[in-house]
Amino acid sequence: MFDDLDTDRRPLVLIWEVTQACGLACRHCRADAKPARHPDELTTAEGKRLLDDAAAFGDGQLVVLSGGDPLARDDLLELVSYGDDRGLRMTITPSGTRSLTPDRVEALADAGVRRMALSLDGATRDIHDRFRGEESFESTLEAAEAASDAALPLQINTTVCAETVDELPAIRDRVRDLGAVLWSVFFLVPVGRGRILDPISPERAEAVMEWLHGVAESEPFGVKTTEAPFYRRVGIQSDGDEGAARRRGGITAGRGFAFVSHTGEAYPSGFLPESAGNVRDRSIVDIYRHSDLFESLREPDRLKGKCGACEFRRVCGGSRSRAFATTGDPLESDPLCPYVPEGYDGELPATLGAGSEGPAGTTDAAD
Q1: What pTM does this model have?
Q2: How far apart are CA 297 and CA 277, in angstroms?
Q3: Which H or E element spans position 84?
Q4: FRET label pair with 334: which of 35, 144, 171, 208, CA 20 to 30 Å apart?
């Protein structure tokens, strides 16, 4: 037997990108989604085999059906129901389009979806829709209300970049008003269409992390960061409770996290598109546990630069996706983190972004 949370043995989060088809044209889209489905997507039978393999990780494995827009697949409910029958915790991240009707939300809940995540990148229609490239604000709010009516727990995802960072306080209020159980705050990785967006600076990112810790303490919903694991380091430094930081979770690409693309390629993360094998040829369990790429990402002592020298590397580890996107090496330092370990005199990563202010109403300590 092994510890159910042993990230050497199983991912805490397994994402399956069931399709890259989507009716939106979001400015940050990792997948560079298109309206039409790809002809080489995993078939229904192949998808069920993937879900069978996922169940082999152990009871209650979390599976996130993502895209593109998962609703573009006409077998979606069948796949949800199948995964639920196999004992998987099935969750979904649909796009906020007119196809996400209250009836479809209810059908997803009835099929076995345990949580639905919706994206909100602006607190108002104009800002959100401009970022998403299409009208989606009203559809997103209607879907959130439908989730509440269906007793389906709601998660809100928000992308942080130079264009959206000032919206965070107002989005926080929306998250509270929508009754979400979790706010997942994603810090931009320059992949896909996101390469054209401006990131925030490391100093501003640090200020946002400090602000988010305050949000987590004062709001009824949980807060987590995506592709910004130094949120945990900031928590340790602010309250000195390393144990609490560990309990908040400590997953990074390949370490507690795995991603299967629409064509079956297994990546450490959707934002780290380096394949470790294809689930058509090899089970996701074998790829996750035994591929060289995944194993290397689970060894903090193999990290390079200041991440490798950092005393917080075992509870943080930096964004391996951002390191890969900016250097081509997933073991290099995360350029978004401004922390320099004491005594470190090696090379520092190139600075990202600009500006030092935090979200409205907050300031960076450097100000």
Answers
A1: 0.90
A2: 15
A3: helix 76-85
A4: 171
